[in-house]
Amino acid sequence: MTSGRHSAPRGQRATKRGWFGHGRTRALLSLGLVFGFGAVGTMAYWTDQGTMTTGNISAGSLDLRLNNASTLIGQGGTWNNTDFAATSLIPGESVAFSFPVRNDGTAGFRFSATATASGTLATGLRFTTTYGASAASNSGSASAGNRAGTCGANTVGTSSVTLSASSASVINTPGVTVASGASTTVCVIVALDSSAGNSLQGATGTASYVFNAVQLS
Amino acid sequence: MTDGARKVSRSRTASVVRNMLLNIGAMLGVLCIVVALASAFGGITPLVFRSGSMAPEIQAGALAFAKQTPVKDVAVGDIVSVRDSAGTRVTHRVVSVKLSGGTGELVLRGDANEQPDAETYKVTSVDRVFVDVPYLGHALGWARHPAALFLVGASVSALLLFVFKPRRGTRGGGHRKAARVGTALAVLGLVGIAVPGVPGTSAAFSDVGTMTTGTVSAHTVTSQAQPACANVDGFLVLGNIARVTWAQVNALYEYTWELRRADNNSLAASGTVGSGIAQGATVTVDISTGLIGTNTNYNVIVRARLVTPNTWVAATTTTTPVRRASIIIIGAAFRCGHS
């Protein structure tokens, strides 16, 4: 410090020139900082205000849960919904089941769903997948052979679909939006087709629903 | 320290800071100009990662640069940016590519996601990520905030004023003019930096939940038990019949019955009974002489079925033997069992 004190003015003159030349040149180059990124997609901003509101960076988590807060915590998982079962269906009968799809993550998501079915009975079963606020409602009885399931005023994702071993979309993308902390009821009606053949007597089937949640941007 | 020494030291520090700021500003400025030119003419798109689905390789808040690439040049393992059906930009790693003509069907998966994206993207070209810088996206994100805009604007103005301000002892009319122009440019430039226009890429965090159902089973039509047979006598020699009865298995059932000759199995008579009868109640078929005129052995074959749809029938039948016989020469009767 003491030794450098006398050489200070010289040093000042030397650094003034810098790597990029004179201060003014460098200042002009600095303007590039201002215009550089600005050149990219400026029009998009002025024509679409919406782009500004979607700029959040989220380091949050995404967690889809089925049925309740403690089912399928974290990524992935399989919930065996044993309530989703029916015995001794006769052709024309249907039963409905519903459960909430919960968003326990920190950001909103939208989900779609695909489904597969296995077992001999799969060819005779028709799945109607709905979502909204309504839970399943079932009427009739097995002894009267007139069981009928309904899903209220829900939005129908897909209606009377025959599921097979190959995955089929039942709630199409982009899917259903669920805010963080909220849930949506998914209600499924499974019917044994009224023209199901005699060979399906006593046959059984199961289905598997895969819910794909994607973070809202 | 003397006053003079302090003054020299202060102005030297100021000079060093000023030079440093100018150098950094100039370097970033050149970088930005290069990026701007590259995006304008080279098909390069800057992307800000808004989520951490490509973590740990690319964290949320990273800035990446992607180059427009025809889908035929995309290889499995590349990180590419596409738009999904909702119009959201998704940047994930390529799991598989299926080419047909100039179009490719891409299956993508975020490194932090367990499953590939639900959607298969049909594209002709993608933006392939070739470099990424951690945290820089955050900086760009903050630059959009009004307070940040103000700060950036203020510092840019300060930087320009600092340089163009007339130095002591010089007649700086031109410098003063330059300072004003510089400030005006800086304010204009604010608009530029306010709108980095860098598309956010959601990289889409995802989660997959699977629900398996219990078993759904179809009804099995159960056959009735072996029917009972009773000889029921009418008045004198008239109306002597064989009465075949069994318990209704299920209220949903009815029964088809057939009367067939035991020797050649030819059908003598048939009918349907049991519809509407409660479970456990008796279902009855009366086999009377009016049905057939030949005295021989017969079988009553009964099969259960659903009333609706009546195509669903029991797998097995019951067979009850009966016979037509003469009574006191002139009369005739159906009796249980074969002769």
Characterization of the model:
- The complex is a heterodimer of chains A (217) and B (339).
- Chain A has a five-stranded antiparallel sheet with strand order 1-4-11-6-9, with no helix packed on it.
- Chain A is α+β, with helices and mostly antiparallel strands and 217 residues long.
- Chain A starts with 7 loop residues before the first helix and ends with a strand.
- Chain A has helices spanning 8-17, 23-36, 42-47, 50-53; strands at 64-66, 78-81, 86-89, 94-103, 109-118, 125-132, 137-139, 148-150, 155-161, 168-178, 183-192, 204-215.
- Chain A is elongated and about 95 Å long.
- With 339 residues, chain B is an alpha+beta fold.
- In chain B, strands 6-5-4-3-7-2-1-8 form an eight-stranded mixed sheet. Chain B has a five-stranded antiparallel sheet with strand order 14-13-16-17-18, with no helix packed on it.
- In chain B, strand 11 and strand 12 (241-247) form a beta hairpin.
- In chain B, helix 3 packs antiparallel against helix 4 (173-194).
- The chains are: A alpha+beta (217), B alpha+beta (339).
- At the A-B interface, helix 1, helix 2, helix 3, strand 1 and strand 2 of A face helix 1, strand 1, helix 2, helix 3 and helix 4 of B.
